[in-house]
Design a protein that fits this description.
about 375 residues; 14 strands; alpha/beta; Alkaline Phosphatase, subunit A
């Protein structure tokens, strides 16, 4: 029995546990807040950037190690969100991303579904309905919990082959990330989803065919680029596609829908993985890589002047601390856990509609305020 319990603990500790604990009292989840400001100008584009597992200490460590400077410091509006899920005070990435994508609290492990497993519409799907271009970019597999919650509707984050099918069922304009095997080397069936996407008119490519930066973009076709057979490498192992992917995505989507605009989600997934590993160097290198990508997106927004950027995290991972004896060149780190924690999470905003994101609010408000920024109305 002891061995069995220890096995269950290990499975849950890496974020794969989807067992539903007793739901939190509904009274602790207030209705959507009254918008704090009236918008003078709506953004044409919204870019949501998620540093998975990125809390204040992760940001601080990255800043100190990076010469006491991050691109995040250019964001004029800062808020805090409450990240708990419907089933646990400590959320996982699936429930956290579903809150961002659909504006609901749901159970840990849920992908685009409510606590009763009913599908809930996502901001990406709403953007598609309004004629906007859409995209997802991640340093994980593209079917991992965070990107999955913007496009999939499944009861468990572990159903990755089912999540991959969601990319065939939507009209998403662009996706870049790992996990090629979930599309074309499937255990569930013999389907080749990449061939199916090509039949729909997508330009399909991957890391074995051409570098992402050498693709000749055809704005008349949707674009899918797979960066790895499974999970991409770490930044320290040589993974270098996040910043170029963000640049390709913003260029591509802005040309796909010049008049309507676009919605894009970009995830720096492996800040979280460094937290699970209790590895400060891993956290810092991923944090700096994510911030360099933020800088590239800021460059686009400054030139475009019609783009709202929102940067946040789903949760903090590791209980990461910068302990006495640290210097800017060498962080003496401490950790309280190898899982997530329940601390409040920062939100940074830049561009038209940024003032919507000040204050302290539920994580579901990220969705509500992006929707308000776009000017989407309930249908």
């Amino acid at each position: 029995m002891i061995k069995r319990l220890w096995f269950v603990f290990l499975i849950c500790s890496v974020g794969a546990c989807t067992s539903r604990q007793p739901a939190l009292d509904a009274a602790v989840v207030p209705p959507p807040a009254t918008p704090p400001v009236l918008l003078e100008k709506h953004p044409k584009n919204v870019i949501l950037m998620i540093g998975d597992g990125m809390g204040i200490s992760q940001i601080t460590a990255g800043m100190y190690y990076n010469g006491n400077r991050l691109n995040l410091e250019e964001f004029p509006v800062v808020g805090l969100h409450k990240p708990y899920s419907s089933s646990n005070l400590i959320t996982d990435s699936a429930a956290g991303a579903t809150a961002f994508a659909s504006g609901i609290k749901t159970y840990n492990g849920a992908i685009g579904v409510s606590p009763d497993t009913s599908a809930v519409k996502t901001i990406l799907e709403e953007a598609e309905e309004h004629g906007l271009a859409t995209g997802l970019v991640a340093t994980s597999t593209i079917v991992h919990a965070t990107p999955a919650a913007f496009i999939g509707h499944v009861s468990s984050r572990n159903k990755m082959e089912e999540i991959a099918e969601s990319f065939v069922e939507t009209e998403i304009d662009l996706f870049i990330g790992g996990g090629k095997k979930y599309f074309s080397n499937r255990k569930k069936d013999k389907r080749d989803l990449l061939k199916e996407l090509a039949t729909k008119g997508y330009y399909i490519s991957d890391y074995t065919k051409e570098p992402l930066t050498e693709i000749v973009l055809d704005y008349s076709k949707n674009l899918a680029y797979l960066t790895d057979e499974d999970s991409p490498k770490t930044e320290k192992q040589g993974r270098d596609f996040l910043k170029p992917a963000a640049q390709v995505a913003t260029n591509f989507l802005s040309n796909r829908s010049r008049e309507k605009g676009f919605f894009l989600m970009i995830e720096g997934a492996q800040i979280d993985w460094g937290g699970h590993a209790n590895n400060a160097d891993y956290i810092i290198s991923e944090m700096i890589d994510f911030d360099e990508t933020i800088g590239a997106v800021l460059d686009f927004a400054k030139a475009d002047k019609e783009t709202l950027i929102v940067v946040t995290a789903d949760h903090e991972t590791g209980g990461f601390a910068i302990n006495p004896g640290s210097t800017m060149e060498k962080i003496k780190s401490g950790f309280t856990t190898d899982y997530h924690t329940g601390t409040l999470i920062p939100v940074f905003a830049y561009g038209p509609g940024a003032d919507l994101f000040s204050g302290i609010y539920e994580n579901t408000e990220i969705y509500q305020r992006m929707k308000l920024a776009f000017g989407f109305r309930d249908q």
